[in-house]
Each structure stands twice: as C-alpha cells, then as structure tokens.
Amino acid sequence: MDVISVIRAKRDGHALGPEQIDWVIDAYTRGLVADEQMSALAMAILLNGMDRGEIARWTAAMIASGERMDFSVLDRPTADKHSTGGVGDKITLPLAPLVAACGAAVPQLSGRGLGHTGGTLDKLESIPGWRAQLSNAQMLEVLGDVGAVICAAGDGLAPADKKLYALRDVTGTVEAIPLIASSIMSKKIAEGTGSLVLDVKVGSGAFMKSLDDARELASTMVGLGTDHGVRTVALLTEMSTPLGLTAGNALEVRESVEVLAGGGPEDVVELTLALAREMLDAAGLPDADPAKALADGSAMDHWRRMIAAQGGDPDAELPVAREQHVLTATATGRLTRLDAYDVGVAAWRLGAGRARKEDAVQAGAGVELHAKPGQDVVAGQPLLTLHTDTPEAFDYALASLEGAYDIAAPGSDEAAAHRPTP
Ligand code: URA
C-alpha cells in the first residue's frame, strides 16, 4: 500500500476501501505517513466526502489505534454527553454532577477551547487546585466514589485522532462532517460509555451553521454509536446567541454553580434538565427526577465532591479579571439579535481562549451579558461587560462586537416579532 494512491483515489472522488483506510490510519499514527500527506488526504475528504461505510471503517480504525476503557466494574449504568461546541456552553459543569446524583455514572472526557468556542477543562481549571489530568485508574476511582468525573482524555485513547485533529486545526479541514463525526465518536466509543447524548449545536456560534448540516452530522454520529453498541441519541440545539449570561472560564463556572444552587439563567437550566433527562433515559433510568436533584441540593453535593476529588477547592474564590469595560446599548427598544460568534470572538480576544494550542488562557477573562434577545434595553444602559487582565485587548475585542447586535424600535413589527423571554 502507498499513501499517494490513497490520496489520489479520494482526490478523484472514489470511495476508499477498508484495507486502504486501516492502513493509512495505522501508518499515520506510527509516523510512516507524513503530516503533509495526511493534510492532502483530509482536504480531499473535505472536498469529496465519504460514504457511511467509509466513515464507519475510518472510525473503527481510529478506535483501534489506541486503548479502550472498560467501566463494567461499576455498579451503575454509564452515561456521557458531548456537545459539538458553542459560546457560553457550560452545560457539562452542572450536568455531570446532576446526572450522577440521579444514579448514573458519568465519565466525561472533555477538551479545551480553541478559537471562539470555550472548553470545559479551561473553565474548570479556573477553580484553584483543580486538575484535569488523571490516570485511567484515578478516573475510575473518582467515577466509583462520586459518580461523575470530568477530565482530559489520556494519551492512549484514539491517538490517531489526537494527531489528526491537531493537523486539521491548522490546515482548514476541521469542517468536514465525516472527519468531525469520526473524531468525536472514536473517542466516545473508546471511552467505553454505555450510552451517549449528543448536543449538536446549530447557528452562528457553532461549527454547523445550517440545520441540514447539523442533521447530517447528528445522524452520522448516532449511526456510528449505535453500530458500536452505544445507546446514542442526538438533540439539535440553538447556538445563534450565547447560552446563559456569560462566556469565559471563571465567569461560566460561577454561572454553573448558580444553576446547581437552584438559580441561574433559564436557558441554561432548561438545557441542563433536557439533556439530563435524555441521559437518564438512555442509561435505563427513566424514572429519575433531575429537577428534584437540583432543588434538593444533591446535585450541588455531587459537584462539590467531584471538584474536591480532583484537587479543587469548591469554596475558593474564583479569579476575577483585573479590568472591566462596559458596552452600553446604543438605542432604546427590544434586543432582537446578539450574535454568538461575535461574542465568542470577543471573549477569545479578551484572553478567555487561545490562538495556538500551547497558549495559556486567562481565568477571569470573558464577556458578561446584561440582556438576551427578546428583552427590552434602554439607551446608555449596560449591554455587555468585557473582562480581561490585559486592557490593551479591549479595542480588539470591541471591534468584533461592531454589528454584533440589533435593537428594534419600541412598538415596531420587528420588536413584536421577538417576544420577551418569560
Ligand atoms: N470535536 C472533536 O472532538 N473533533 C472534531 O473534529 C470537532 C470537534
């Protein structure tokens, strides 16, 4: 087998055979196929696509490139959730302890933010002392003791994806549905969860900007999970405006703790409960009541134990950025649009995200929203507060917010079409 013939086949629009796929993934993982050759193949896949058979084989080859975890020693069913990523998407933080409080075990392998979307591990690292890196044995121990663990995937899990994802990120080949589906599902299947709920985001702040693409991604991933014996369901959820009222690491942890304490923004609570119900159903616990576990404090109790088990202090003060800048509303009326992508870019430019994998993030940086689409605003009153330790970033962040929102005149048809949120 030689890599050039595999690249040529995909370049010319042919389906790759099982032997070609197995060989190229294995050879790339072992360093026998060069990055530039794999980049050419990834671009050919982005341009010419893959059929379901190719995607299934590609995923299986990525799983086979590393180890598989096994949670069969646990005395309860496992349930995991994956979001395809968005702005202000902190749902994993309250969701994992909530579902654990309802009787499932939640092995949540999570990632870091890149570009305009935030990452769960970056958010949790703003809690003093908290560690993302656990060995497989430590992960199993926390899962057994607490019922929920959120940590980084070990190096042994789908190493082919680790290499390929980093390469796609710098070669403009992230947005290929076959590559996204196989990347996400190879890690989730190798992780060994019994059931999986996929939160596929659609809108300006998501990878998938159109409903058709989001549907295609969701059905591809559900098919892959089901074929590997993982009970998999997908929800398509809105990502055209940020989720909740914060985008940024410590800011989002604070909002998640509010949700666990029985408060927090309504959209965050609603999505957390919807995903919890799906996870519990998929795990075979349809009678569990997540709303009760939020209200009676048991979800908060699991959060505190989960954070402490990974070295974090759940009572510690969260970092606050050194400088704030308030952006005020330019008109009085109804906020009809606040763009998720623009807010995500602003948070990133303020220091909440990284431009390169090796960059550090600022714990306190980000954007706080004072109104959501559908709410009325008054000219001169705060609309957004920007937070950073590096005030020279304000102008750069503000530039990304030009044109990020629309305010419709009071009484106009446009205002009437955007009802206030209840
Ligand atoms: N998340 C992943 O893990 N892989 C992708 O390809 C995209 C998002």
From TrEMBL:
GO biological process: pyrimidine nucleobase metabolic process; pyrimidine nucleoside metabolic process
Residue ranges constituting the Pyrimidine nucleoside phosphorylase C-terminal domain according to the UniProt record: 334-408
Coiled coil: none
Top-tier EC class: transferase
Keywords attached to this entry: Glycosyltransferase, Transferase
EC number(s) reported in the record: 2.4.2.4
Protein name listed in UniProt: Thymidine phosphorylase
